Amino acid sequence: MINPKVQQEVLSALDRLSEESQQEFARFLQTLSRRDSSPSAASALLTLSGSFDSRDLQEMEEAIEEGCEQVDVNGW
Fold it and tell me: What's the whole-number average pLDDT of the chain?
């Protein structure tokens, strides 16, 4: 059952979003609904497939390359 207060908050927020952002939100909701019914963590990860655009993926890749594979000799 939908909580009326939550429903109103969601609809109000959707009304302020661009059409592109509304579509992104709809994809996010689909991901959540699939994840809630998914029996495993692996299949939950698969539901995220395609949910990132190429710019976001590039930023993540750059952050990983900058922050990983470095040794802090003074660290523990």
Answer: 80
